[in-house]
C-alpha cells in the first residue's frame, strides 16, 4: 500500500535556484519540484504539494505561519499518512517546537527539513534531506506510523523537533539535539531508535490548538548587566531568563528586589540555561536559590526555542485547566528530561 504524504513548502533555501544573470537566489515554481528531483517518483509513496502562496524567508516565519501550517495539517489529517514541511533553516527549531505543542494527540509523522544550499546547486544537501524526509514521513509498520511526533530531519539525522537548535550557519550538519538522543539515522539502512520515540496518551484525540500568545519576553543574562530597565518595561505576562550554568545569576539584594517586583506585578518568570547541554537545577548552587525564593519556574533542560514557544502556547490558553506554572511544569511532548524534573 502506497502511503500518501503532503509536502508543505513554506520557503527557504531549499526552494531556491540561482538566477545566472544576476547571481541572486530566487524562488522557483514549487509545482515543478518533481522535475527538479525526479527521484521522488521512485519512493513508495504518493506526494502532493501544498505551497505557501508567497514563499517566505524563515526569519519572517512566526505565529501566523505556524497557524497556517497547523491548519494545513488539521484539514488534511484524515487524507494523508504523513506530512513533510520544507522550511528555512534559521527558525526551523522554533516552528518545530511550536507545532509540537499545537498538534495534540498526533499519531502521524510531521517532519521538517530544509537545506544549506539551494536545490539547483551542484553540491546541494537539499535532495538528500528532502528524499529521506519523505521516507520518514511515509514510514509505517503494521499499519501504524513509526514516527508519531514533530521531528526535524537534517544531514542524516532525525531529531525530536522541540529538542533541537541550529548550531551552524555553515556546515551541512546544522542541527543538534544536545539533551536528547537521535531518533533515527540515515545510512545504508534507514535506522529508527524506537525506544526514544514519543507517543501521545491513547485517550487524547488529534486536534490542532491554534492558541499562541505574544506576551512573552526572552532575555539573556550577562555579567555586569543592570536589571533596572526590567521594571521600566511595560508589563509582560511571561519573562524567560536565560541564565548561567545550572541556574545561577548575580546574587545582589538589588537583583532579588528587582525580580521580586516583576513577580509581584503578576509576571511569570521561566529560567533556562545558556549552556547547550544540561539544564536548570535550583538549589545546586546558592546563587540559584533566588529563583526558588521568588517562585520562578524551572525550564529544566529545554532549549530556548522550546521554552519560548511552549510559553507562547500555554499563556492564557483556555484549552488548559490549571495555572500557567502548573502547565509549564508538565512534560507535554517530551520537551524536557524527566530526570532533571526537580
Automatic annotation (TrEMBL):
Active site: 13, 89
Gene Ontology molecular function, alphabetical: asparaginase activity
Asparaginase/glutaminase C-terminal domain sequence ranges: 216-319
Record-listed substrate binding positions: 58, 89-90
GO BP annotations listed: amino acid metabolic process
PROSITE patterns given in the database record: ASN_GLN_ASE_1, ASN_GLN_ASE_2, ASN_GLN_ASE_3
Transmembrane annotation, as ranges: none
Top-level taxon of the source organism: Bacteria
InterPro entries: Asp/glu_Ase-like_sf, Asparaginase/glutaminase-like, Asparaginase/glutaminase_AS1, Asparaginase/glutaminase_AS2, Asparaginase_C, L-asparaginase_C, L-asparaginase_I, L-asparaginase_N
Listed CDD domains: L-asparaginase_I
Residue ranges annotated for the L-asparaginase N-terminal domain, each copy included: 4-194
Family stated for the protein in its record: Belongs to the asparaginase 1 family.
This protein's name: Asparaginase
Organism name: Marnyiella aurantia
